[in-house]
Specification:
14 strands; 20% helix; alpha/beta; Double Stranded RNA Binding Domain; 3 domains; Ribosomal Protein S5, domain 2; four-stranded mixed beta sheet; elongated; Ribosomal Protein L15, Chain: K, domain 2
């Protein structure tokens, strides 16, 4: 049902659909009407409104009032739209394309109502999932969707084409193994260092070190020097690696040495090698110093 009338000689109203609704109440069924209206000035302004009331005329007034308060401006190029628009909202999908002069409005009911109210004369439209449009609730959402779609229109100088990012899976539309493919070692761009084609890495194929402690660290452990053996050195001696090499305790300056143990010293020493906590206490009690 489409009714056309002039409103204040500025806007044109189109009643797209009238639906009779009823509500169960204590006193019986309460009857009402829900009206869907499109309002436009045929100069690029259009609005969609939905109104409900016990009678049709009151529902139309509510819908018109709502539509006039929520009008949008549709960019136009002469008598058509500036570019192609495709929008998906919910279950509805609509495609609108510009057309040369003289084509006319090639569109369905809901699209035609909005496009003609906006003043577009040449346009081609295609809708999908039209079975949903037969239901009233979908028709309301569809009209709102048409309004949202017109908001996506921009003037030609503002239109920017963005490249759509596609993946490499089955849903990309580029076949299962297009591009670099989804299988094999080269599917992700490059082969990492040390990759041997999927077999066990060389570091794991090497045998373990034999013996009780076969997984011990390759770093040499420090040579332990018991703190009680320091009394064999003269008092007030400066004990460092050069001093220990002189007394044939170590053979190289690179050898790691550590003083450990807990004992009472008789002489005072200045130690320049690492010491344990108990060794530091014993050396300081004797009056010496530990410089690490």
């Amino acid at each position: 049902m489409i009714d056309t009338r002039k409103i204040q000689s500025e806007f044109e109203e189109k009643v797209v659909q009238v639906n009779r609704v009823s509500k169960k109440t204590k006193g019986g069924n309460k009857i009402g009407f829900s009206v869907l209206v499109v309002v436009g000035d045929k100069k690029g302004k259009v609005g969609v409104g939905l109104g409900g009331a016990p009678d049709v005329s009151s529902a139309v007034k509510k819908a018109v009032s709502y539509a006039k308060k929520h009008m949008i401006i549709v960019p136009m190029h002469k008598k058509t739209i500036p570019h192609e628009v495709f929008v998906k909202r919910g279950a509805a999908q609509v495609l609108i394309k510009p057309a040369p002069p003289g084509t006319g409005v090639i569109a369905g009911g809901a699209v035609r109502a909005v496009v003609e109210a906006a003043g577009i004369r040449d346009v081609v439209s295609k809708t999908r999932h039209q079975m949903c449009m037969r239901l009233w609730k979908h028709s309301k959402n569809y009209m709102r969707f048409i309004s949202v779609m017109t908001k996506h229109m921009k003037l030609p100088k503002l239109v920017q084409t963005t490249k759509k990012r596609l993946g490499r899976g089955h849903g990309s539309g580029r076949v299962k193994t297009s591009g670099r493919g989804t299988k094999g070692q080269n599917a992700r761009g490059h082969v990492r260092m040390g990759f041997e084609g999927g077999q066990l890495p060389l570091t794991k194929r090497l045998p373990f070190l034999r013996g009780k402690k076969r997984n011990k660290s390759l770093v040499d452990k420090p040579k332990l020097l018991f703190i009680g053996s320091l009394d064999q050195f003269p008092a007030n001696a400066i004990i460092d690696k050069a001093f220990l090499m002189k007394h044939n305790i170590i053979t190289s300056v690179t050898t790691r040495v550590k003083v450990v143990g807990k004992a009472k010293l008789e002489h005072v020493y200045t130690v320049h090698i690492p010491c344990s906590k108990q060794s530091v206490i014993a050396i300081t009690k004797a009056g010496g110093k530990v410089i690490q």
